[in-house]
């Protein structure tokens, strides 16, 4: 067999190897001897393999019968991978086939030990052994011990990541003389395993990231003098002893990011002076570690990002003259002192992003003669620092996104034009690109102008870039059209015009983009048509994205010349039909996405001659049929998505023409049967989703004999019966989801012929029992996880489950009617995860559970009604959920044997005191998560949590009887990363600042305040770059300072301001947050009556990056102050309802017109009708109001509404005569007012003092209005002197003043009174010859934090 196998390989060598390794293909296509559902790849021919090519075999997620002979004996298999296959021991057949294995990857299995002497069969050839994400540390012995690594003298790499190992036996690696790389990440080490590393002398890479190491002791690496890279990222290291890195003369890379380092001694890195790369990011460093870095003559890369550094000068960097890469991003730098970088002559890359620079001095970068990459992202810089950048002669990449740059021109950019190849100015406030803006650029390859305010795109703007520019990014601007000549960027390969306001594209728009490969026009919702010849000149186009537009039809001419096209995205449009030959003769096309249109018809041969198609997405349409005749020839289709349509039947030819289908998604249709012949011949099928249909039965052989089928999803149908042969011999079926159906019973042979069921989900059916032999090993070899929750079990089906006792890992029997659990020994043996929550268990049953499943790791008994917890006889237990029971106290002996417990949930019980529980915590030294919320605990003292030093997640909210929490209550849990302390109705005071001291690692905090105001001072200790979630609540809270969030610099942030008495949010609330951060603000349950215009302007400025939720739970008052909010809501949320005034209560704010949103009490009488008094005949008096359009430019002060006196009876006392007199007087007053306004306008037009030049922040005045120095002393009624006259309608932030149009022309002709609107909103732009009024206001005196 060996010679025949090698002969077959030698025939295929010329076909599959031509100097490069072949891609993975089904093994049977390489050799008929490889008859198993794996992928194989041939490598180069090797002499040591008798002139045969090496063979790599990938059997990930693949299982074999125990008696199967997997690989041909002696086959030249050098690399073998079988991850996530459920192995609990090393596979015998792999090591008994005399294979020349060099690399073995068995990661993601359930290996708890290594079979003795198994690895000796490959000891001479094995060079890489990967055993990550197994269970090698899941034992009572805290020290991992094995002799299987000894003697693997050629092994160079060993991966033991994610095994839960706490310590390693000394001498475990003896004999591993060639070991160079050792990966011990994601384990439970508390110290560097120094003595365990004494064996291998050639070790170069040691990775210990994501452990619990809190310090590095003296001579931790003394036995490993050959180390070149040490990774200690994401530990708890707060101290490093002097000499810890001694004897590491060869070390080049040291990673210490995401620890607790704050200060450094001068000799902290003694012995590691030859470092080339040092990573100290995401620590708590306040001062630059100048002295500690003094001895690094060879340091090339230094990362200090995400720290708390505030100052930087030349003295800090004087010893780092050979530095190439310096990262200082996400610190608190406010300025760059001139001369800071004078000594960094070799520096090539400098990252100063997400700081607070604002301005850059002319000589800030002096000395950086070799700098090539400069990142100034998100610093609130207003102008491009041309002079400073002009002193960087080698600058090739400049990144200035997320700043406030308003103007670009050729002169401004000239200083950087010579060398720059990549320019990023996205997310600024650029409104226009003047002609020849980039004329001086000679080498620009990529230009990023995304998320600005550009309205018009003129080809003249890109003069000078015709022969260099390859990438142009203009998404999320306001471009309405392409004007000027056709874009003539002949080298352009990628053009992104997505998310603009394009309405039409002329057919010649891209005719001169000869090299274009990627065109993105998505999210232009007004683009309803594409010209037939738009793409005809783009002969090299490979990717086209026109998704999320308004397309209603596409002509068959569009892709006529697009032979190079590989991917087409037309999803989320309004297409109703796919016409004949739309996709025809496109040999390179691999992806077509037509999802979420209104397609109800696909014409014959719509997809003609597209043999290489891989993905077709038709999800979310109106299809009632899907035929194979749409394709006139066989395809290579692998993924087909026809879900969320109206399909009730499929033709026999539907899938036959796609023999290589791997994935079929057909959920959310109307199928009531699914014939077996549809998929019977699909030998490569791996995944089927038929969820949310109307299937009532699965017939015999419907999903049988599919050799590669791994996942079958049938949830949310109406299944009542399953044929006993439905899945017969689909040997690779491992995930079967039958949840949310109507099954009442299962046949004994239902799972016959299956090898391994990794997940069997039977949740929410009508099962009352399981056949005793349904999981018989002769029928089903392995069952690992089963979900039987929400059924009708009165007695747990333990006898059926016992058949799989050796493999069964997880059993979920929650939400049933189980009362008793028998006390028999061994009835639940070997179960690792057991969920019996929300069953009416008897106390005896609970006691039986606590004493019986000795090997259980996760136990959930929530909501079972238990009132006491006896001694737990579960020594392996790591997670215990006892929430929502009646437990009032715990005994000291309860956790004596559960010393490995890591997660304990006691929430929702009757615990009234935890004083003295330190005697319990002493048994739980490894506890990482504790929840005691919703208990009637009365008092929390400083000693209540002594012994919980490893606790990382702590929740103690909703303590209804708590009256006191001591300031030092959390002194023993300084390693917390998540803390919930809120909802204490009886607590008089909570010292927020005191409680949060000494918890610098917090990443998630939800806390209640009893103060009336909250600011930065109370939260100072947790406002750092690692904070991801901050929640503040408290009914007494009425005010939030603008600087409350100052210091948070994470890239993704969740802020909760919930259940307070706050009525308004400060306009500058989000100013301290980096503009580049993705932020979510939850304002649920407050007393907000509206959102101020300044705050809305901020939300608009951060469009897409700042999201507000929960506003609908606030008492929004729909008056004149809510006009701007109404406009903003229309594109963000539509569920906000009014609580006042009474006549608008209950209405959706977005459905109310501006005329109804008024602060005039006279208009608050009726929402729809206007009462008028008849004087004589048909004569009526109608009150006319004229309101100029006003746009406020500065923050607004609250205006007191005048009190209206009304008669006690509520009836009007005015008669007709009174009304007539009032009308006459009102008419006279109105006439005088109009006359004064006309005189003012005439005098202004006669004046030569017309406005010219840009508008300055804080004094924005439109032509025709009264500006500074005007002789016309007009005022608006009710305005206090020296202040704004009324509440702002829609504010313009001060920093945006410079982005307004440079010159506003004066329109001649009759004066027209505009209707109310706001800047940038619909009604304003729909009116011609209407100019807005800008009212100048004094700037707010509120402090600005950054």
From TrEMBL:
Keywords: Leucine-rich repeat, Membrane, Repeat, Signal, Transmembrane, Transmembrane helix
Residues in the signal sequence: 1-21
Gene3D superfamilies, A to Z: Ribonuclease Inhibitor (3.80.10.10)
Tagged with keyword Repeat: yes
Annotated GO CC locations: plasma membrane
Stored SMART domains: LRR_BAC, LRR_SD22, LRR_TYP, LRRCT
Transmembrane segments: 1220-1242
Keyword Transmembrane set for record: yes
PROSITE patterns in UniProt: LRR
Ranges of residues in domain LRRCT: 1114-1160
Protein name: LOW QUALITY PROTEIN: protein artichoke
Gene (name only): LOC115886793
């Amino acid at each position: 067999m060996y010679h025949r196998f090698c002969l077959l390989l030698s025939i295929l060598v010329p076909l599959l190897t031509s100097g490069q390794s072949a891609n993975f293909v089904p093994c049977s296509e390489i050799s008929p001897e490889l008859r198993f559902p794996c992928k194989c790849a041939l490598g180069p021919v090797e002499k040591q393999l008798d002139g045969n090519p090496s063979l790599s075999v990938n059997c990930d997620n693949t299982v074999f019968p125990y008696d199967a002979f997997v690989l041909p004996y002696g086959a030249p298999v050098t690399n073998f991978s079988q991850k996530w296959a459920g192995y609990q021991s090393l596979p015998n057949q792999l090591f008994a086939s005399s294979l020349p294995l060099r690399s073995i990857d068995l990661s993601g299995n359930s290996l708890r030990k290594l079979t003795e002497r198994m690895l000796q069969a490959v000891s001479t050839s094995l060079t890489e052994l990967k055993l990550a994400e197994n269970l090698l540390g899941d034992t009572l012995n805290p020290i991992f011990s094995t002799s299987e690594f000894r003697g693997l003298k050629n092994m160079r790499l060993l991966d033991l990541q994610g095994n839960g190992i706490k310590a390693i036996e000394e001498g475990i690696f003896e004999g591993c003389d060639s070991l160079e790389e050792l990966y011990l990440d994601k384990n439970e080490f508390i110290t560097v395993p120094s003595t365990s590393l004494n064996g291998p002398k050639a070790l170069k890479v040691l990775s210990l990231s994501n452990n619990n190491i809190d310090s590095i002791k003296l001579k931790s690496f003394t036995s490993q003098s050959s180390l070149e890279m040490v990774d200690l990222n994401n530990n708890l290291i707060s101290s490093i002893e002097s000499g810890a890195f001694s004897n590491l003369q060869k070390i080049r890379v040291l990673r210490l990011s995401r620890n607790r380092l704050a200060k450094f001694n001068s000799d902290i890195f003694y012995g590691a002076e030859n470092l080339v790369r040092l990573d100290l990011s995401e620590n708590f460093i306040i001062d630059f570690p100048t002295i500690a870095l003094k001895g690094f003559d060879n340091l090339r890369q230094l990362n200090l990002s995400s720290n708390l550094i505030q100052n930087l000068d030349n003295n800090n960097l004087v010893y780092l003259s050979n530095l190439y890469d310096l990262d200082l991003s996400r610190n608190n730098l406010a300025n760059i002192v001139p001369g800071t970088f004078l000594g960094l002559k070799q520096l090539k890359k400098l990252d100063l992003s997400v700081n607070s620079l604002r301005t850059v001095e002319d000589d800030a970068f002096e000395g950086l003669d070799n700098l090539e990459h400069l990142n100034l992202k998100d610093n609130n810089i207003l102008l491009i620092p041309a002079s400073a950048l002009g002193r960087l002669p080698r600058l090739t990449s400049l990144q200035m996104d997320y700043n406030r740059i308003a103007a670009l021109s050729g002169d401004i950019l000239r200083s950087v034009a010579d060398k720059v190849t990549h320019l990023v100015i996205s997310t600024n406030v650029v409104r226009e690109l003047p002609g020849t803006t980039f004329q001086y650029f000679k080498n620009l390859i990529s230009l990023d102008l995304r998320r600005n305010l550009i309205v018009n795109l003129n080809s003249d703007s890109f003069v000078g870039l015709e022969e260099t520019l390859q990438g142009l990014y203009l998404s999320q601007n306001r471009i309405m059209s392409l004007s000027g000549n056709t874009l003539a960027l002949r080298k352009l390969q990628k053009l992104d015009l997505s998310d603009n306001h394009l309405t039409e594209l002329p057919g010649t728009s891209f005719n001169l983009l000869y090299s274009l490969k990627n065109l993105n026009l998505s999210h232009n919702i007004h683009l309803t048509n594409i010209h037939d010849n738009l793409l005809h000149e783009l002969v090299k186009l490979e990717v086209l994205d026109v998704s999320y537009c308004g397309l209603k039809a596409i002509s068959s001419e569009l892709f006529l010349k697009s032979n190079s096209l590989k991917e087409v995205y037309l999803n989320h449009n309004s297409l109703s039909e796919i016409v004949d030959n739309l996709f025809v003769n496109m040999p390179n096309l691999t992806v077509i996405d037509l999802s979420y249109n209104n397609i109800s018809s696909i014409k014959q041969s719509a997809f003609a001659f597209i043999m290489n198609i891989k993905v077709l997405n038709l999800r979310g349409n109106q299809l009632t049929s899907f035929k194979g005749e749409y394709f006139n020839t066989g395809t290579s289709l692998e993924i087909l998505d026809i879900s969320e349509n109206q399909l009730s039947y499929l033709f026999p030819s539907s899938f036959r023409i796609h023999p290589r289908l791997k994935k079929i998604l057909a959920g959310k249709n109307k199928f009531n049967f699914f014939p077996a012949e549809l998929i019977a011949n699909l030998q490569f099928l791996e995944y089927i989703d038929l969820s949310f249909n109307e299937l009532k039965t699965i017939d015999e052989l419907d999903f049988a004999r599919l050799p590669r089928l791994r996942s079958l999803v049938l949830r949310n149908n109406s299944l009542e019966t399953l044929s006993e042969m439905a899945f017969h011999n689909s040997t690779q079926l491992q995930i079967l989801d039958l949840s949310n159906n109507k099954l009442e019973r299962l046949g004994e042979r239902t799972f016959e012929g299956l090898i391994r069921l990794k997940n069997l989900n039977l949740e929410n059916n009508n099962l009352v029992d399981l056949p005793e032999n349904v999981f018989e090993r002769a029928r089903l070899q392995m069952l690992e996880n089963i979900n039987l929750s929400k059924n009708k079990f009165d007695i747990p089906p333990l006898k059926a489950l016992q058949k799989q006792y050796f493999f069964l890992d997880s059993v979920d029997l929650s939400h049933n009617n189980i009362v008793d659990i028998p006390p028999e020994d061994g009835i639940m043996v070997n179960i690792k995860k057991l969920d019996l929550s929300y069953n009416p268990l008897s106390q005896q049953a609970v006691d039986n559970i606590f004493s019986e499943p000795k090997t259980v790791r996760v136990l959930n008994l929530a909501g079972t009604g238990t009132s006491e917890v006896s001694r737990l006889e579960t020594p392996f237990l790591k997670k215990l959920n006892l929430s929502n029971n009646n437990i009032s106290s715990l005994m000291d002996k309860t956790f004596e044997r559960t010393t490995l417990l890591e997660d304990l949930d006691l929430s929702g019980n009757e615990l009234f005191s935890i004083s003295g529980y330190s005697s319990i915590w002493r048994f739980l030294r490894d506890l990482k998560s504790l929840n005691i919320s919703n208990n009637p605990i009365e008092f929390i003292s400083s000693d209540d949590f002594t012994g919980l030093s490893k606790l990382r997640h702590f929740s103690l909210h909703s303590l209804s009887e708590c009256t006191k929490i001591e300031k030092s209550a959390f002194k023993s849990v300084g390693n917390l990363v998540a803390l919930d302390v809120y909802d204490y109705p009886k607590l008089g005071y909570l010292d927020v600042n005191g409680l949060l001291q000494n918890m610098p690692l917090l990443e998630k905090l939800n806390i209640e305040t009893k103060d009336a105001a909250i600011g930065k001072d109370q939260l100072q200790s947790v406002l750092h770059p690692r904070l991801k979630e901050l929640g503040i609540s408290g009914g007494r809270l009425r005010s939030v300072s603008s600087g409350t969030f100052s210091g948070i610099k994470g890239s993704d942030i969740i802020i909760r301001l919930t259940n307070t008495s706050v009525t308004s949010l400060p306009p500058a609330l989000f100013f301290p947050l980096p503009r580049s951060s993705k932020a979510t603000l939850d304002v649920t349950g407050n007393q907000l009556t509206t959102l101020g215009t300044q705050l809305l302007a901020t939300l608009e400025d951060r469009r897409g990056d700042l999201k507000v939720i929960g506003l609908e739970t606030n008492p929004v008052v729909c008056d004149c102050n809510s006009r701007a909010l109404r406009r903003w809501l229309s594109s963000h949320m539509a569920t906000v309802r009014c609580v006042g005034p009474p006549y608008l209560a209950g209405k959706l704010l977005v459905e109310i017109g501006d005329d109804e949103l008024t602060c005039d009490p006279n208009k608050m009488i009726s929402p729809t009708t206007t009462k008028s008094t008849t004087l004589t005949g048909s004569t009526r008096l109608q009150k006319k109001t004229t309101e100029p359009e006003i746009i406020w430019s500065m923050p607004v002060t609250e205006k007191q509404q005048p009190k209206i006196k009304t008669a006690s009876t509520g009836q009007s006392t005015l008669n007709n005569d009174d009304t007539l007199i009032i009308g006459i007087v009102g008419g006279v007053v109105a006439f005088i007012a109009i006359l004064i306004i006309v005189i003012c306008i005439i005098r202004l037009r006669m004046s030569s003092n017309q406005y010219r030049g840009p508008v300055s922040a804080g004094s924005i005045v439109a032509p025709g209005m009264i500006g500074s120095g005007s002789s016309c002393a007009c005022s608006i009624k009710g305005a206090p002197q020296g202040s704004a006259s009324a509440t702002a309608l829609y504010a313009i932030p001060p920093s945006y003043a410079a982005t307004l149009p440079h010159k506003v022309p004066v329109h001649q002709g009759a004066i027209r009174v505009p209707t109310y609107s706001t800047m940038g909103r619909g009604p304003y732009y729909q009116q011609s010859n209407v100019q807005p009024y800008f009212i100048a206001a004094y700037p707010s005196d509120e402090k600005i934090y950054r």
